[in-house]
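Annotated sample (chain length 445).
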Amino acid sequence: MIYRKALDYLISWKNSGNRKPLVLRGARQVGKSTLVEIFSRHYDTYLKLNLEKPSDSILFDKYKDTVTLLKAIYLHNKKVITKKSTLLFIDEIQHNARAISMLRYFYEEAPHIHVVVAGSLLESLLNQKKVIFPVGRVEYYPVRPCSFLEFLDGIGEEYDKNLIETTDAEPAHQRLMNLFREYALVGGMPEAVVQYSKNRDILSVSKVYESLLAAYIDDAEKYAANDTENKIIRHCLKAGWKKAAEVITFEGFAGSSYKSREVGNALRTLQKAFLADLVYPAGSTELPALPNLNKRPKLFWLDTGLVNFYSKIQTNVFSVNDISDLWRGRIAEHITGQELICKNESVLAELMYWRRDVQGSDAEIDFLYQYDTKLIPVEVKSGHNSKLKSLHIFMNDAPHNFAIRIWQNSLSVDDLQTSAGKKIRLLNLPFYYISVLDKIVSRYI
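Output written by the structure step:
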C-alpha cells in the first residue's frame, strides 16, 4: 500500500470544526477511490455509493429530503443508523445532478455525516450539463499521481524517504539520484508504482500504461461536445505525448490539419480533466505574476512515466546517467514540473514559466516558484554557471537575489555575480529534494 500525502489532509479535514463536503478532483486512476477506502478506516461507519450504478443513483431521485435520503442510504449499504462517526463517499457524482445539489443540504442539515465525493470526468461533464457545485457549501482537494516521496514508499524505500523528509540525504546522494531516475522512468500512477514494486522491472508495467491510455481515449467521447471535438481529443491523446514540456502551437498540432481554436478547446478540455496542463509564460520578475494567455504555452501531461512509454523513450531514460541530458532536457523539466505541482494542495494551482517580454529576446526560465513574497526563478540544468544566461537576465530585474537550479549533483550554494554586476545566491538542488523545496529554501534564502 502506498501512503498518500492526501491522507494527512483528509484526516485534518475530518477533525476540522468548519468541515464542508469535500470534492476530490483528479484524473482517472490517480487513486481517489483507493484513498477514500483507506481513509474510511478512521470511521465507525462507512457508507458508499457509486452513481454510475443505476441502483445507487436512483436514491437521489426517489428521496427528496435529507433525513429520508440518509435513511435510504444506510439501508442500501446494509448499515444500522448510529450516532457514531460516519463517512459517506459518493463516487462518480457527476452522473446525478440531484446528488450534487444535495451536498448543500448535507452541509446545512446533516453536518454529523462526513461527505466526500469524487468523479474522474467531473469538470468537463459538469460544464456540458451546466451543473455547478453549491457555492460556499463544498471544498475541493486535488489528487494527483504519486510524488517522489510517495513513490519511495510504494517501492519499499521508506528509509530513503525519511532521509529526504529530514533533509539529511546528502551522504546517500548517488543512491537517491538512482532512485529518482527510477521515478522519472516509472512515473507516479499508483497502479504502475505497485506493479513496478513487485520486481523493479519496467517492462512489467507496460500493460498498465496501455490500459490507462485506452481508458483515456475511450473517455474522449465523454469529454467531447461533438464528434469533431471527439476526434481532436483522441488525436491529442495519441500524438501529444511527444510534445511534453515543449512550447506548442495549436494550429496543426502534432502533424494534424486541425485549426488553432479546435486544438486549443480540446487541450483545455483535457486540462479540466486533469490529464494535461497548458503552462503559459509570465513576463514579470516579481509578484503578482500573471500568465500571458496570448503567448504559446508549454504542454505538460499528468505523468512522466506515461510520457516515456507513449513517446517510446523508456530505454533512453533507463540508461542515461543524467536525466538533464535526455531528450534535450525535456524529461528532466517534465518530472520537475510534476513534482512542483504535486507539492501544491490547491485545485487552482498552476505552473508558470518565464519569458522575457522584450521583442526579439529568447531569454526563458523553466519555472517560477513563489516563496513568501518572492518570485524565484527555477532552472533545470546541469553544467557550469556560464550556461545560466537567462537566469542572469531575470535576476538583474528581480527585487531579490535568490535563484534555484535543479540538477544531478549534490546540494550546494554558489554566490555569484550577474552580467550586470548584481550579487546573487544560487541554490543548486538535487532532484530528490524538490518534494521538500520549501524546507531547503528556508535554510538558505
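Annotation: The chain has two domains: 5-142, 145-445.
Annotation: Residues 15 and 432 are 32 Å apart (CA to CA).
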